[in-house]
């Protein structure tokens, strides 16, 4: 068993009730490389970055000839640019990631799907279905915004200063520290630690993020067309309004008439609490997208008389 304390890591011997301090090391001294080791670990286990991400590209070559380490999508359909350094971030990693993000921000939905299909060595229909299954919002919102995650063992003070400044101006950029430790048997342990934003500042960051989203929504309203169906439904967390549009899109609004960015979890909750028994998967066994799930839930709420006024 391993315990972490103030930048140190200990291995716990349960039988002896003793803590053995592990020795800090570096990736370089262990002959571990940025591209062929660290990149592979994160690709196979993206949860080490602290959240659920779908990796959609590795060593993605950009028009400039540069290669982006890892490209991912989060549950909100935002592109996540992951830039890796081994033992030291250097002074330019933030600028490098910003350039990559600027380029990726212009990807259309079809381009994101196409790049993922290449990564999967599959076709675009399969890639589109996997993305639609993973995200909790409409596919049309794919790449409406972007994020950056920097990963390194150590960070130059210039990078830390730049990241904090960028965050103050609404750029969603994070710093994750990966610290290696070794025990007396030579086994390697990795400690992931998000240093920006600090976990203690989570509430503050979320409030700022909500404000930024509201401003963006006011500037670029979600184009959905005319309402063709609308129902209200009461569940344990409040009353929600489901709307279906002639574009086939589905929107979910809370009691304050605010559109829920993540509609799919609310739809699943409605299905469960109202015992609608709408299948969450399609004929291929994959999760239904928001459009299909929303359409069927609206139909069942009406058929079973479980909508409210």
From TrEMBL:
The major lineage groups are:
Bacteria, Pseudomonadati, Kiritimatiellota, Kiritimatiellia, Kiritimatiellales
Sorted alphabetically, which InterPro entries does this protein's record hold?
tRNA_endonuc-like_dom_sf (IPR011856)
Q: What is the protein's given name?
A: Endonuclease NucS
An annotated Gene Ontology molecular function: nucleic acid binding
């Amino acid at each position: 068993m391993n315990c972490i304390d103030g930048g140190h890591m200990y291995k716990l011997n349960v039988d002896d009730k003793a803590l053995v301090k592990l020795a800090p090391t570096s990736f370089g001294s262990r002959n571990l490389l940025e591209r062929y080791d660290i990149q592979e670990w994160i690709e196979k286990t993206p949860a080490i970055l602290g959240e659920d991400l779908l990796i959609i590209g590795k060593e993605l070559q950009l028009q400039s000839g540069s290669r982006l380490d890892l490209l991912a999508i989060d549950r909100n359909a935002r592109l996540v640019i992951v830039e890796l350094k081994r033992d030291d971030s250097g002074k330019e990693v933030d600028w490098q990631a910003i350039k990559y993000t600027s380029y990726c921000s212009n990807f259309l939905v079809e381009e994101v799907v196409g790049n993922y299909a290449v990564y999967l060595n599959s076709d675009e229909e399969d890639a589109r279905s996997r993305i639609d299954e993973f995200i909790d919002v409409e596919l049309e919102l794919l790449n409406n915004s972007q994020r950056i995650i920097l990963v390194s063992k150590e960070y130059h003070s210039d990078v830390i200063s730049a990241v904090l400044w960028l965050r103050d101006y609404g750029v969603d950029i994070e710093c994750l520290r990966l610290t290696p430790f070794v025990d007396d048997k030579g086994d390697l342990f990795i400690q992931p630690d998000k240093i920006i934003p600090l976990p203690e500042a989570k509430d503050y960051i979320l409030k700022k993020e909500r404000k930024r989203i509201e401003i963006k929504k006011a500037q670029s309203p979600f184009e959905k067309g005319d309402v063709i169906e609308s129902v209200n439904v009461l569940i344990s967390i409040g009353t929600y309004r489901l709307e279906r549009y002639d574009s086939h899109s589905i929107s979910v609004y809370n009691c304050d008439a605010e559109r829920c960015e993540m509609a799919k979890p609310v739809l699943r909750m409605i299905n469960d609490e109202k015992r609608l028994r709408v299948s969450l998967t399609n004929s291929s066994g994959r999760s239904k997208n928001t459009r299909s799930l929303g359409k069927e839930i609206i139909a069942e709420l009406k058929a079973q008389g479980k909508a409210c006024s």
